[in-house]
Amino acid sequence: MSAAESPTLSAAGGTAPSQGGALPRVLAGVHEGVLDLYKHLDVHGPLPAWHAGRTWRGKAGESPLIEETFRAGVLGRGGAAFPLARKLHAVARARGTAIVIANGTEGEPASQKDRTLLALTPHLVLDGTIAAAEAVGATEAIVAVCELAEDCVRSLELAIAERESAGKAPHEPSLSLATAPGHYVAGQETALVSYLDGGAALPTFTPPRPYERGVARRPTLVSNVETLAQLALVARHGASWYRALGTPASAGSALVTLSGPVASPGVYEIELGASLASLLNAAGGTTAAVRGVLVGGYAGSFVSGARLRDLALSDEHLAAHGARIGAGVVALLSEDACPVAETARLSRWMAGQSSRQCGPCEHGLDAIAEAVADIAHGQARESRLAQLSALVTRRGACGHPDGTAAAVLSAVAVFKDEFDAHARHGLCERCPTPPELPFPRQPVTTETARRRTAGA
Amino acid sequence: MSHHVRVNPIACEAHGMCAELLPERITLDEWGYPIVDETPVHGAELQHARRAAQACPTFALLLERAANEP
């Protein structure tokens, strides 16, 4: 689904963009459509030059923006919630001229927030990319997007061209656009580095981590595009403004992709720590009884629909329910759906997205998908999944097997009644209903990525 | 400074030599890939671990030194 088809796009909360405590922030101004450079400057104002008069780019010191980002407490929005300031600091300290990669590949099937952001407010992402580059002393920055997201590619091409014709300041890094294949692990940071270096878009063994040795063997900051958009706002308004929203541990706002039985599914900007109920209200309420909700993404966790009114959207609140905000996915599952069939589709898809580089992931995810399908048909027990989960966890070069196993185990725990009933009686009357979890229309496999690399 | 055994799962092709040479640390899963005890290796065991790492046909078994340790 492109951003243009995205049914709604709005902020769950206030309206005035200029006050620290109000929403929307990163989505400010998008109700009037795409923010070209003029509208962008109108809404957000120019990016202040944090480097001016400083000598920190010689790496001896530290950019004051890194310190400000640390105080703001910006956490990565690509899924791992890694503190942005720590990443900036590590790249700034590493030997060699750094390079910045804005990661907008968004391989997560249930997420639309990055492509929405890129399609509607590309200049905020470019500002954040420039700010990050200046903070780490990079002279070059690349924005990477999924090649299937044509609206993002067009939007960024246009935005970069607008900046070029407006003329860039001498201290600004060069900006370029790269398109990456669309499979799930292509956005994993080592896979993206490998691809931008002319290799396959597949994860690599670490160390070295990209911050030590990345693209062209240079220290490389790989950061999610929403994280960089947030950085662009910290650079403008500072840490106190940033912290005026959110909780002490999860400051600021976040983009979430809401799907399932709600009146207006789509991308919303929320205050971190806001109740799920407030998000559902902003989306016009639920349209069916909710059996469960997948939080974070395909590698996230299911939470029971019975907890719907207790959930607040921040990691510290979600931890009690075994979930994390991850990539901002909130995918509701109605009581009309069969959670076992949904888990079977999810696990099969995730198995298909394995790079098939690491034995335990290659064989283990297939075995997990097979076991879920067997349970659905009444031909296996849930104990097999616990066993397989232990066999794949922490045994791949990347977190793909871990995330898949955790999501499946959370489904087994939350939908215990349905899994038990399937294990005993096989398929249910709800099994054949159409998928409710967002399911990719164009399945892209790592095999196609390999062939393309080989042919390129 | 301590050492530990680690597998590069991308390089590993399930030859299984490591489990034969270092059975006290390494067992094989149902597909033949090594499950490794990554706690520190000391003393005489270190020599066995080194031999196992050298015997891996794909150089996937690593004997790593833990840095930043007192």
What does this 3D model show about the protein?
The complex is a heterodimer of chains A (456) and B (70). Chain A is an alpha/beta fold. Chain A has helices spanning 37-44, 64-72, 84-93, 113-120, 122-136, 150-166, 189-196, 225-243, 276-282, 315-318, 339-352, 359-376, 383-392, 400-414, 416-425, 446-455, and strands at 8-11, 99-104, 140-146, 174-180, 220-224, 253-259, 266-271, 290-296, 301-304, 329-334. In chain A, the strands form 2 sheets. Chain A has a 6-stranded mixed sheet with strand order 1-7-6-10-8-9, with helices on one face. A 4-stranded parallel sheet of chain A has the order 4-3-2-5, with helices on both faces. In chain A, helix 11 (339-352) packs antiparallel against helix 12. Chain A is globular and about 70 Å long. Chain B is an alpha+beta fold. Chain B has helices spanning 17-21, 43-55, and strands spanning 3-7, 26-28, 34-36, 61-65. In chain B, a hairpin with a 5-residue loop joins strand 2 (26-28) and strand 3 (34-36). The interface between A and B is medium-sized, with 14 and 13 residues.
Brief rundown of the structure:
The complex is a heterodimer of chains A (456) and B (70). In chain A, 40% of the residues lie in helices and 13% in strands.
Layout of strands and helices, then pairs:
The complex is a heterodimer of chains A (456) and B (70).
Chain A: E1 8-11, H1 37-44, H2 64-72, H3 84-93, E2 99-104, H4 113-120, H5 122-136, E3 140-146, H6 150-166, E4 174-180, H7 189-196, E5 220-224, H8 225-243, E6 253-259, E7 266-271, H9 276-282, E8 290-296, E9 301-304, H10 315-318, E10 329-334, H11 339-352, H12 359-376, H13 383-392, H14 400-414, H15 416-425, H16 446-455
Chain B: E1 3-7, H1 17-21, E2 26-28, E3 34-36, H2 43-55, E4 61-65
Antiparallel strand pairs in B: 1-4, 2-3
